[in-house]
């Protein structure tokens, strides 16, 4: 499959010479993140090109996909024909950018002979406007096969990429949960209006080029605090109604109710934490009061009708899901009497009930308004050279729209989780159903590819949560709660015959094996079984951490030694090639079909095959100084050694902030860090420590440095507005975590509280040369 997504072409009598698109040498530079701002002038150029349709007769058009070369550089074409400059670079033709990464130039052919056309040779070159020098592409001259039509017809030569080394482009960005943002007009939570009116101007004025968000998909099921968990989406496509900007909607006809709701909003605006249930209830009350006033005119609203038509594949099941969810509060979709699974006939049947259908239209309208607002944010960002980076959760809720409408894509009898580690002795059980990857592969992962293509509507880049899940996932039977009872999938489990040979004759492996449920009415042993049945084959997995059980220590020394050797090989060696092939196959299908810049969340203990696959597909890794991926003498990673294709950060939402990490080190470790990492022997202030850490990250080779707002603020003590502990957004060890963090001030307050902070930040970013579009 070609790299880079689908292509389109309008033809009359045109001869088209195409080139296969392999992944380019520096694929990230071809993503929207690293391209110059997609201005309205460029959009007009693209629109006029599309309206013209096919090439005009007697036109020979050259086109090539290229990365950004900077405002002081210009891609040009020179060749053997006089109209191509006759190899004189000063007479070369400038190429015009007609799409995000497509450049074109045309010449007229009616004055050329057949011999001249057939003998065309050409090359691309790069003009440095400052110096007037030209950089020629490497390799032999380009040419194309014999022209099969006379010069009176048109032709297009579509080349792949220039043979010119792309520039080193590095950017800085801001990571922030949307719900945590404040503004002077918010309704107790950050929303799409906050993004547009406050966040975008803020990042632009500080030469930050990326805004990274946590997931913003709808999670509404109970409307309680559990729904605040942004990674537990009920839909992978629908946006969360809590993020709608009320101020972009018409005012209510009932002015008394309007004033009442806005008074409540002003109260919620003052809260130190997000009151999730109260904010959602307030916005829903406003929206449900407004919809009847707009309902009739929506029947004639072409934009609304087109949105519903173009998105019906996901919008219909989502809207009916929401209707039935509210009819049957807190009940699993599998128990709904109207249908335990969505199908098109359900739409026709329920649509005949006027009250239900009006509720269905309400949820369609909500998504229409949310889409309209977020598209406006994305467009404004694109025009200003700022990219939105989304977050793609690895799982979906077991009661989600996807499970209700496409159950065949999931293993509903299994839950995703994580094996035990130093922080969770029993492992983790996330409760998400695992994917039926084998079924998904039958249509080349169409569900995943469609999911990414939908995200392209809003984002230029995506963080892929727990990318290890594309290589293998820790599966736990739905009936179990402990992560100890899990296994990796895919896997190569041993048969009982193989287990007997591996463990020797001193023990009967049949007594160790988990029996089939049907033949095992007795209770399982207190410590469980050391051999766990694979749900997809006749094989058995070794139970992880079995070495810590009393039963294990009752075995003979030889059996214990054999088990340790088998277990170590099974979990850390045996599956590496399987994981490599699996991850490469799945991720290649995704990365080759999207224009998005894909960024992995690849922290923690990962198989050796993962970095190689990410490197082959040019997916950016995630790098943290405090979590070195390889052995270092100090235990910390040096930002100056981070790989180029990476996102560098100082903390994530799942760990203490930069201040929290530093204060948690203790005096001895702080001194060691200053000495071994910063090479400082004398005491410095805490403020200076953070400034040096920020500068080291900005100086790293990483193409993106995206830091949480709290960590950007750490370099000025006037912005230490809360305790360091309160800056941590999520505590993953807490299964009942309430995602309610709010920043203590608005973005506009920062300049007032710390007048020197902006200048210092700009100095750091400019000194690190992270302003390519300035």
Which descriptors would you attach to this protein?
single chain, 774 residues, alpha/beta, Immunoglobulin-like, eight-stranded parallel beta sheet, five-stranded mixed beta sheet, 33% helix
Description of the structure:
With 774 residues, the protein is α/β, with parallel strands linked by helices. Among the domains are: 14-159, Sandwich (Immunoglobulin-like), CATH 2.60.40.10; 182-392, Glycosidases (TIM Barrel, Alpha-Beta Barrel), CATH 3.20.20; 620-767, no CATH class. The protein has 23 helices and 23 strands. The strands form 5 sheets. The protein has an 8-stranded parallel beta sheet with strand order 20-15-12-11-10-23-22-21. A hairpin with a 6-residue loop joins strand 18 (531-533) and strand 19. Helix 5 (276-298) packs across helix 9. The two termini are 36 Å apart.
What is the second-level CATH architecture of the domain at 182-392?
Alpha-Beta Barrel
**CATH class designation of the domain at 182-392:** Alpha Beta
Strand order of the largest sheet: 20-15-12-11-10-23-22-21
Rg for CA atoms: 29 Å
* Low-confidence sequence ranges: 46-54
Total DSSP E strands: 23
Residue share in β-strands: 5-15%
Largest sheet descriptor: 8 strands, parallel
What coarse outline follows from CA principal-axis ratios? globular
Q: What share of residues is helical?
A: 25-40%
Instruction: Tell me the name of the CATH homologous superfamily of the domain at 182-392.
Output: Glycosidases
Counting DSSP H or I runs of 4 or more residues, the number of helices is 23
